[in-house]
Amino acid sequence: MRDMGERGNRHYDVVVVGGGAAGLSGAMVLARARRSVLVVDAGEPRNAPAAGVHGYLGLDGTAPAELLATGREEVAAYGGTVVDGRVVAAEAVKDGGAAGGGFRVVLDDGSSVTAARLLVTTGLADELPEVAGLAEHWGRDVLHCPYCHGWEVRDEKIAVLATGPFAVHQALLWRQWSKDVTLLLHTADEPTDEEYEQLAARDIAVVDGVVDAVTTDSGDRLAGVRLADGRILPCRALVIAPRFTARAGFLAGLGLTGTEVERSGHVVGSAVAADPTGATEVPGVWVAGNITNLFAQVGAAAAAGVTAAAAINADLVNADIHRAVTERRTPFSAQREREAAERTMTPHRHGILDTHTTHTAHSVVQEDTPVQKTDDDSSAAHARHWDDRYREQNRIWSGKPNPTLVAETAGLTPGTALDLGCGEGGDAIWLARQGWRVTGTDISTVALGRTAEHAAEAGVTGLVTLERHNFAESFPAGAFDLVSAHFLHSEYDMPREEILRRAAGAVAPGGVLLIVGHYTLPDWADHLHHISFPSGQEVLDSLELPDGEWEVLADTEHEREATSPDGRTGTRSDCVLKVRRR
């Protein structure tokens, strides 16, 4: 997809698939409602061949491309984003839930984005009769809707190509725009006696025989049709009845498909079923425009986009209320963490950060700032230490994810994740941007407050839940598809082995436990050499995993350079253990 940039990792309130009148109208309403909106458009509007849009008050005659360009500008003016690309798949994110929503859309270039809600406005494809030269004139001289094109061919010679039971109805309808209408029986059944009488009463000629091809004049305008027996019938407009097929193939992963639409017992196409607001049978997914209403003109499609957008915003408002009430009833919540951080952070800054250190909150193995132990080794002292540490600067860590996390989660299907010691949220926010629903945990309320702020800035608040835990005393409830523990070391009395065993117990069947820790330190880090840094194998042994229930995916060590605050260099090594529960 072009022009995605960093948006490929973002989470949006709403992703709109399709950038026609319905999609852009819906996107503008949502953007004006201060929702984060991404419109993904394949650039194939159904009405592209037409010279102008008609029946749209105030914009009658506007070229389709001009209308869409203006619509894109209006969406962008309210903060929405429109990008070129084709969505090839859509799937629900595990445990998306009503409060945060959870859908991932995958594009034809392999990139993906996530959203709380989806608005699908991909329209339909017109399946045309197989007549030589007909497709080249579609939307110009080969028409189907008199309200879209009737005025432009008024008083011209109009021929109606009969391919189904509605041909007589079409001929009688188009007679309103011209006195010179001819019904070509082509492949349809012969009209009934009553229909012949109606046609005769309206002076509509009937011609039998199969149409072979259309003919054109020197200006490439339709001149007539040629029948199989060689006869030529002059006409300036040819009316057909396409089969209308909803562009909904990419929704199969959500269980949504187009269902057949009948008129008078005859199938005229397929559409995605929805209620009057556009809500489908899949919670969180709305449709608007021709994908659900085969006969909607541009104005009706735009109105349907507005209706769906209002319904989506109302649904998100209800989700926001539910989340806020839940957080208010919870002793610890993201909002309370933000408030705590705002009360306690100061502009005071000091200390030199080693650019090679990791960003994870519980990693107290920092070459630049040794831990100052107190006489009180209690849980409260441990928490105060980390709160004070985070207050030293407005940002302690880089905000980037641990490279090992990025490498080791490549290829994993996003689901639920537990980040043990999330710090300021670098790992948790990166995972959320990939579509994971993350529970971030830390002992520091200041750190969790910053994570909440950074998650809001990244637009992934709905995918990140924060909990305060001292792992020696409490542990998050639930089972997770990924449990990540990066650099979980401390000079305080922390039962690391027991904590990591509990981490293994929190892995869901088929899920992954990723443990990354220091193994050796540079010579100049003498103040930390009393801390035990086990190898990957030693960590594996301490987990006491039942035989046959786990698979070791990685047990590696790697070295990298480290620089002390006073400029001394050295090497240190880290170990990586990655195991999967069968």
Q: What is the β-strand count? A: 26
Q: Mean pLDDT score, rounded?
A: 84
Summarize the biggest pleated sheet. Answer: 7 strands, mixed
User: What is the general shape?
Assistant: elongated
Radius of gyration: 32 Å
Q: How much helix, percentage-wise, in residues?
A: 25-40%
Strand content: 25-35%
Number of helices: 14
**Poorly predicted sequence stretches spanning 5 or more consecutive residues:** 1-8, 95-100, 337-377
Q: Gap between N and C termini, in Å?
A: 36 Å
Q: What structural class results from the helix and strand content?
A: alpha/beta
Keywords, separated by commas or semicolons:
582 residues, seven-stranded mixed β-sheet, elongated, disordered N terminus, alpha/beta, 26 strands, single chain, 14 helices
What does this structure look like?
The two termini are 36 Å apart. Helices cover 26% and strands 26% of the residues. By secondary structure, it is an alpha/beta fold. The strands form five sheets. Strands 1, 2, 3, 4, 5, 6 and 19 form a seven-stranded mixed sheet that branches. It contains 14 helices and 26 strands. β12 (211-216) and β13 form a beta hairpin. The chain is elongated. It has helices at residues 21-32, 64-77, 97-100, 146-149, 167-174, 193-201, 298-329, 334-344, 379-391, 403-409, 426-433, 445-458, 496-505, 536-543; strands at residues 11-17, 37-41, 81-84, 87-92, 103-107, 112-120, 124-127, 142-143, 158-161, 181-184, 205-207, 211-216, 222-227, 232-234, 237-239, 243-246, 259-263, 266-271, 285-287, 416-420, 437-442, 464-468, 480-486, 507-520, 550-563, 569-581. α1 (21-32) packs parallel to α7.
